[in-house]
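Comment thread on ticket #2218

A.B. wrote:
> Attaching the input chain for the structure job we discussed in standup.
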Amino acid sequence: MGEDDLVIVRSMTEEIIEDFQTFNKDVHVSYLQDTGHSPPIDRLEELIETFERFIANE
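C.D. wrote:
> Ran it. Output below, let me know if you need it in another format.
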């Protein structure tokens, strides 16, 4: 995977985080009830940080 691919993945991941952060309370509660856990915002942010470190080390 090249640096351009990682930049695309990072951008897509940031969009997913934004989508989760724009959940209204009812949707968040519904997601929690359906899946048993909160939207995985922290894991997505961790993924972005991992990509940033990888890109920085290339």
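A.B. wrote:
> Thanks. Noting for the ticket: Residues 3-21 form the longest helix (19 residues).
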